[in-house]
Amino acid sequence: MSSRFLMRRWAPVLAVACLVACRDPGPASAGAPVPAPLPPVAAPADAPAVPASAPASAPQARLPRGGPDCPGYREVGTEDADYSLPGAKRARNAWRDKEATARCLFDAAGVGFPASRLLLRVFKQENEMEVWASSGARDPLRHVATYQVCRMSSGGPKRREHDGNVPEGFYVVDSYNEASTFYLALHVSYPNRADLALGDAKHPGHSIMIHGRCVSAGCVAMSDERIQELWVMADSMRRKGRRADVHIFPSRDPRALARGQTDAAIASFWENLAEGMDVFERTRRIPAISVAGNGRYAFR
Prior knowledge:
By secondary structure, this protein is of the alpha+beta class. 30% of the residues lie in helices and 18% in strands. It has a single domain (3-299), classed as L,D-transpeptidase catalytic domain-like.
């Protein structure tokens, strides 16, 4: 029996399972810095309960958009990876199969590999993820790749457990799960201080990840092919004692969304996110970020 047949047969079960993994652990300390630092090597376990509802977008095309002619970069993302492999073998296979791709992409962008700074920028409305990197800590970042996200909920910012929404804000990859139910998973440092101030501080949700398997209701789901590339890029940072940054926006134009938003609090939040986006667009550097007691980000 083919692996693709098995994926079709078990797709409903996987969709429910993803609701489990994209629930989320208890809230971080209200006094934590932004992004909130968490243990760097702990692998987040899949959460045990299923949310009542979690709207998600339809699967998107899985080819990277544009970019150089690097080996593997233009291949269609696979949905039939061997999930029976132990985690260590999955991680080794990612390096075996995708290190050349990552090095080629970074070389084409004029960035050394591993990078000194790595930024993943997610745009929910467009279902896209950009990869940016720099060779030096003080160098402006350069665009490395743009991927289409395979599946991602398109609601507003995440404000509580089980709301099914992908967070919006400024985070880091704070841990790695090479034995994830969703093949490979990069854990995002949600909730941060802003999330706790603006949302349900007691039940904000947890276990937000960038992962494979192309199913999600609160996480950023990539194809297995693409998560291998992202794993190699992010893991190369971890091996150097560095963390990848993750910026998640409602769209490429948060201010336009804010103008059409009837909820004043959400409109104000999107305007605030746009300020951080402006700093990066102007300088091509990741800004230093702080959070006021009311949950508002400040950038410098």
